Amino acid sequence: MFSLSLIEHTLRLPPHLLGLSLEKAVRHELEGLFLDKVIAKLGLCVSVYDIRSINGGFIFPGDGAPTYTVRCRLIMFRPFVGEIIDAKLKDYDENSLRLSLGFFDDICIPPHLLPTPSHFWPDPENGNRRRWVWEYQTDDENQTSGSMFAIDEIGATIRFKVQSISYPSIPLEQPNSSKPFAPMVVTGSIDNDGLGPLSWWE
Amino acid sequence: MKIIKANDGPLTNFEVLDYLRSRGASKEVAVTVAPSEYKVFEYLVETAACNQTREHVTDFVQKVKTYNLAKAEVLNIINIRPPLPVGIFTIVENCDARLGEAAAEELAEMVSETLPPPLAQPEIQDADQLDETIADGNPQPIADSDGEAA
Predict the structure, then answer these.
(1) Are B57 and B109 within one domain?
(2) CB A46 to CB B42 under 8 A?
(3) Where does the RNA polymerase Rpb7-like N-terminal domain start and stop, copy by copy (chain A) (predicted)?
(4) Which helix (H) or strand (E) holds A52?
């Protein structure tokens, strides 16, 4: 789910960092700029892996700080389509299951990618609050009752397969009550053997 | 910012964990890494990658060559470490046609033998990891872009 990306960036090194060695100062700036930020098409930047080259160091007229052109490799979180990942169930509602990896929260499983047939039924033990239930039907003639497997334990580990990743563009205006904008959304599927809560397959 | 190479090589969870450990992340202390990096560390330490070493992974890559799996599938297996055949069926596409049940069971056994189970043993492994990474001046990803194992 991680890969390296080689980028080149021109950055201005603020004078208060000039006491450190050049590499440390540049690394500090790069981390402030890229860490925990989503770069479109590249993914979420997790860490600065290494610095390949630092060029420049010119001081532009009127400026008090040197400008460097840096080539570095970043560790990006960018799952590929078809990858299998274990994540924890954070929340669910009638439109999706939301999973979280700790450092990345916007993983969404839409209803059509749950094992078929699944239903959003009220839970008699929990004050009739609705939750997702998979109805596992065996292949014999007598299909009057299937076994029910519920997906409702918040914090349970769920294994899913990455279906797609999208980078929605930043909206210009947002109404105050809507969810915070997610710059990277991973859509997953659990409609296959071995996928879904790990407790189903142990 | 200019993207020179968007994909300079995939990394297994083990390699990222190794890198974070070499930067000083560990269960108790987390001063040298940023909070967001530490969250990644916390996630990885609970997966199967927490006990793996470079030898385990290169050993496994060598042994799995006979099964003709795609690079993405080998990466998935190293990251998830499925001990049962059902895990292999999830990861390998068209498993029945390409491997068949017997080969999938064999592969699951080989995975259990070659890669360590994810039980918590961080202290002993940490010392080994740090020794390896200090000696290794420029760590290379295990499988680089032309598909050769290190």
Answers:
(1) yes
(2) no
(3) 8-64
(4) strand A43-59
